[in-house]
Specification:
Protein name (chain B): Chemotaxis protein CheW
Subcellular location (chain B): Cytoplasm
CATH class of chain B: Mainly Beta
Shape of chain A: globular
Number of helices of chain A: 27
Order of helices and strands of chain B: HEEEEEHEEEEEEH
CATH superfamily of the largest domain in chain A: Histidine kinase-like ATPase, C-terminal domain
Largest sheet of chain A: 6 strands, mixed
CATH topology of the largest domain in chain A: Heat Shock Protein 90
Number of helices of chain B: 3
Strand order of the largest sheet of chain A: 18-22-23-21-20-19
Strand order of the largest sheet of chain B: 8-1-2-11-10-9
CATH architecture of chain B: Beta Barrel
CATH architecture of the largest domain in chain A: 2-Layer Sandwich
Structural class of chain A: alpha+beta
Structural class of chain B: mainly beta
Strand content of chain B: 35-45%
Keywords (chain B): Chemotaxis, Cytoplasm
Oligomer: heterodimer
Radius of gyration of chain A: 35 Å
Radius of gyration of chain B: 16 Å
InterPro entries (chain B): CheW, CheW-like_dom_sf, CheW-lke_dom
Organism (chain B): Halomonas chromatireducens
Number of strands of chain A: 26
Largest interface: A-B, 31 and 24 residues
Shape of chain B: globular
Helix content of chain B: 10-25%
CATH superfamily of chain B: CheA-289, Domain 4
Number of domains of chain A: 6
Largest sheet of chain B: 6 strands, mixed
């Protein structure tokens, strides 16, 4: 077992934590922030930091660290929230997501972006906390904004008498951070010397700033308990403490309950990175690790939580539960701790440990409990592959069951009643099973809707509009692969509604509407479909303007078009009625992409709009991609499936409606439209198919906005089919989108309407005349001549 | 993946490897038994349009769509018939499942390393790149096929290349 095995767990948890963080940030009331929410945000940052540290994701760890410190100040009320600060926090959250993605893809995050966000946070901290503390007149002597050049500030009361020469000792600080810290300290004064290793590193600093100032600077990089500041009186820092620092301050017993051996080893290794593992012993039921480390309990827990559950873990002071063998050492701990107490402790510092401890405690219970009793006990994480496998197997079961059904259907109802009863029971159970299994893939729309408060907030902010977002039907469920694909088109529609739909506040007031616009996102089931609606109470679509714009773009329109047809114009490529192009929308790319995406998912878009009252855009999607409503057709001896959503009608072509064009092409006149004709047997080289055009059946299909007539031998029927990917074991086949398994166990190909048209054209271009002209000659000679 | 490690382990432990022997016309070929998932009859194959002639189509293997390749056509054998003896060897290569049509499966042979001779440079039909060697067994000669290389090669057109 390797630590990288835990990467995925970490990435998933971190992603969830970030999503929580964003939700809380958006909910935050800037004027009266809820402490619980602030704590939750802080905890999320903290947990991510812990994991990032464990796995060596430096940039992520550092960013979360700075972020966490800021949040810490926020929840203690030292940093007053403002909208722009929350925006910065949100930006930080985005950056964390980016970093996470980078690590997940095995890369390193963008260094520039990382430095920029760190700087932004540092800046914010220096400005805001400095001001805040000054204004608030805190009891403790104050961390001022760190001066670039050390100013001759009057000595603070708590400042050591010694003229500014101090030893800053860093405990368990990695090399990168050390360098950073030394640089930072260099800005405060003069660094006389620095030496040591990761465990203990001494920096001798000559500076006129107070200890507090130094501390304030360092706190953005490392934890308060990772460093000490003492005046350099004796000049022999080594003797002053050494050993006891570690032993005293951090000796703890970490007890693991019911942890398997592999995990134990891993944990001991992990702990070794945090400090020194003094001893470890025990068995699976209870395993004690004595750890000398200066990191906080919380950090230890954060690291371990990625491997074991909170309730499998107990951390206690060495003295409390230490095994007998450790008693002597543990006993010495308090004394040692006293030795190393910070000589320059200020009132604030003295007050800090308890506060922090309390906060840690709060964080622990809050995080520990939901973990143990919350969602984890009621849900499990399963890979999609496993679910798909179950779905496959159930599909097989259904096929077998229908085969059996056919076999027993001609049996005697009386003589074999027991078997027939059993069969009908089997059928019912199999259907129920299929339904339950399909529901595993379903996730609530909340997954999609939850990202819109952010989108709306930012877009509204940019546009200077006031908008209230209402979501309905968040619990409506949809196939996971679809929820992921619906996000982009939906975001586009929402942006569009915000930009073009809802008016500016003044215009709204003038029109007698409430100042604040309302955008509603709703989802509901209807039969086998889900309806997702984006509703705004804005100005609505303007029929005249749409028509005028369409004429300008050379689209074929007439005043007689129905409203529905006019509204659909907004999906035409390059079509935008926005008076000005904004950075939110209006470039005219997009709506056509939205439509294409949705059609790609087997759905369609409807628009309802009323001038002055608003617009309702409705997306209709099938509930799942795993099952398709198909029409089975026969060509030659082969069976194919057409997606029913693409089929408009079918008819038997009459002689008089077929016209030859430019030698090889044939068009079919359906009502007033001439449609290109594609013969399936030609595109797919099916042998023994009907070649006489008037004997075939023309299925009028529509794909990507293009209609054509597909010639097939026979229509077999409609049925729901389970969609199987061809590319899993083979490759993409032109003109075919996927495959399915029929009731008799054989494979049928599902035709790709758009691809088939393309394929047929491509084949016509390279075709050898002698092979293909046959059917067409028959047509030109006999059919056409007789008809004219 | 696992199978490769298992194969390596077996080789290290026993130094002997087991091969499934099959026939194409008069010739005997062998594949590493650990690549073989199962053997089944040739039935219910759905033709795929515009594919090379040796790709017979796809079939349903317990819910999984599996392409079927006829090695006899690929190797330009004179007689290609489908009958009761025609078998499909279902193999696992690089996380894919592929069925290969052969004239028959005879037995499973254990070969020690000294029974496997390096393959000489072959003609055009079967490049020696796709062979792991020739197995000699008394008076029989087995052509040991490197099924991974063969089925994932460009000329088999089974795997979509990124460049395409």
């Amino acid at each position: 077992m390797d630590i990288t095995d835990f990467y995925d767990t970490f990435f998933e948890e971190a992603e969830e934590l970030l999503a929580d963080m964003e939700r809380y940030l958006l909910e935050l009331d800037v004027d009266e922030p809820d402490t619980e929410e602030l704590n939750a945000i802080f905890r999320a940052a903290h947990s991510i930091k812990g994991g990032a540290g464990t796995f060596g994701f430096d940039a992520l760890q550092k960013t979360t660290h700075l972020f966490e410190n800021l949040l810490d100040h926020t929840r203690k009320g030292e940093l007053a929230l403002r909208r722009d600060i929350v925006d910065t926090f949100l930006e930080t959250k985005d950056m964390l997501s980016d970093q996470l993605d980078a690590y997940r893809n095995g890369g390193e995050p963008d260094q520039e972006a990382f430095e920029r966000i760190c700087q932004t946070l540092q800046q914010l901290a220096l400005e805001e906390i400095g001001q805040d503390l000054d204004g608030g007149g805190a009891a403790a002597p104050k961390a001022e904004p760190v001066p670039e050049v050390a100013p001759a500030t009057p000595p603070e009361p708590a400042k050591p008498a010694n003229d500014g020469q101090r030893i800053v000792t860093l405990l368990n600080v990695g090399e990168k951070d050390r360098q950073l810290l030394v640089e930072e300290l260099g800005q405060l004064g003069e660094v006389l010397s620095h030496q040591g290793d990761e465990q203990r590193y001494d920096v001798v600093l000559a500076s006129s700033d107070s200890d507090d100032d130094i501390e304030a600077v360092m706190c953005f990089i490392i934890e308060a308990d990772q460093f000490q500041i003492r005046p350099a009186v004796s000049g022999q820092p080594e003797e002053a403490d050494g050993e006891p620092v570690v032993a005293g301050e951090g000796q703890r017993v970490v007890t693991l309950f019911n942890v398997g051996e592999k995990d134990r080893q891993l944990l001991v290794e992990e702990l070794g990175q945090l400090g020194e593992v003094v001893s470890s012993q025990g068995d699976e039921a209870r395993y004690d690790v004595v750890l000398a480390s200066s990191v906080s309990n919380d950090d230890i827990e954060a690291v371990m939580c990625f491997i074991v559950d909170a309730d499998q873990l107990q951390i206690s002071k060495a003295g409390e539960v230490g095994p007998p063998a450790e008693a002597a050492k543990a006993g010495a701990a308090p004394v040692a701790a006293a030795n190393t107490a910070k000589p320059a402790a200020t009132p604030e510092q003295a007050a800090k440990p308890p506060v922090k401890a309390a906060a840690d405690e709060g964080a622990r219970t809050a995080r520990g409990k939901p973990k143990a009793k919350g969602p984890e006990t009621s849900s499990i994480r399963v890979s999609v592959d496993k679910v798909d496998q179950i779905i496959n197997l159930v599909g097989e079961l259904i096929i077998t069951q229908s085969m059996l059904d056919q076999t027993v259907s001609d049996m005697d109802a009386v003589a074999d009643s027991a078997l027939l009863n059993g069969m009908s029971l089997l059928q019912r159970n199999a259907r129920d099973l299929q339904e339950s299994v399909m529901s595993i893939r379903m996730i609530p729309m909340d997954f999609v809707f939850s990202r819109f408060p952010r989108v709306v907030r930012e877009t509204a902010g940019k546009l200077g509009k006031e908008i209230e977002l209402v979501t309905e039907g968040e619990s409506t469920e949809l196939d996971k692969s679809l929820t992921e694909r619906i996000i982009d088109p939906l975001t586009h529609l929402v942006r569009n509604s915000l930009d073009h739909g809802i008016e500016m506040p003044e215009d709204r007031v003038a029109a007698g509407k409430p100042r604040t616009g309302r955008l509603t996102l709703s989802a509901q089931h209807q039969g086998g479909n889900i309806l997702i609606e984006v509703i705004d109470d804005g100005a609505g679509l303007n029929r005249d303007r749409l028509l005028a714009k369409a004429r300008e773009n050379g689209l074929p329109v007439s005043d007689a078009m129905s409203d529905d047809e006019v509204w659909q114009l907004i999906f035409a490529p390059g079509f935008s009625t926005a008076k000005a192009v904004t950075d939110v929308s209006g470039r005219g790319v997009g709506m056509d992409v939205v439509k294409r995406n949705i059609q790609g998912m087997g759905g369609h878009v409807e628009i309802m709009s009323k001038s002055g009252e608003g617009t309702r855009i409705r997306i209709v999607l099938p509930l799942t991609l795993a099952i398709l409503d198909g029409m089975s057709i026969k060509v030659g001896g082969e069976m194919f499936i057409l997606p029913l959503s693409a089929v408009l009608e079918s008819l038997q072509p009459a002689k008089g409606d077929l016209y030859a064009m430019a030698g090889d092409d044939v068009v079919l006149k359906v009502r007033d439209e001439y449609l290109p004709v594609v013969a399936v047997h030609e595109a797919l080289d099916v042998p023994d198919a009907k070649t006489k055009l008037t004997e075939t059946i023309a299925v009028i299909v529509q794909g990507e906005g293009r209609r054509y007539a597909l010639l097939v031998d026979d229509l077999v029927g409609q049925q729901q089919v389970v969609v199987k990917n061809l590319e899993t074991n083979y490759r993409k086949v032109p003109g075919v989108s996927a495959a399915t398994i029929l009731g008799d166990g054989s494979v049928a190909l599902i035709l790709d309407i758009t691809g088939l048209h393309r394929l047929s054209r491509a084949k016509k271009e390279v075709r050898r005349p002698e092979r293909t002209y046959q059917s067409l000659e028959a047509l030109t000679d006999k059919e056409l001549e007789t008809s004219s | 993946m696992n199978q490769t490690t298992e194969a390596a382990m077996t080789a290290a432990e026993a130094h002997n490897r087991e091969f499934l022997v099959f026939s194409l016309g008069e010739e005997e070929y062998a594949v590493d038994i650990l690549k073989v998932q199962e053997i089944r009859g040739y039935e219910n194959v759905t033709r795929i349009a515009n594919a090379p002639d040796f790709i017979k189509g796809v079939t349903n293997l317990r819910g999984v769509i599996v392409p079927i390749v006829d090695l006899r056509i690929k190797f330009h054998l004179d007689k290609v018939e489908y009958g009761g003896q025609t078998v499909v060897i279902v193999v696992n290569v690089e996380d894919r499942v592929v069925g290969i049509v052969v004239d028959g499966v005879s037995d499973v042979m254990t070969l020690s390393p000294d029974q496997i001779k390096p393959a000489p440079e072959f003609g055009v039909t079967l490049s020696s790149d796709f062979l792991s060697g020739l197995g000699s067994l008394e008076d029989r000669m087995l052509v040991i096929v490197d099924i991974d290389k063969l089925l994932t090669s460009d000329e088999m057109e089974l795997v979509e290349r990124v460049a395409e």
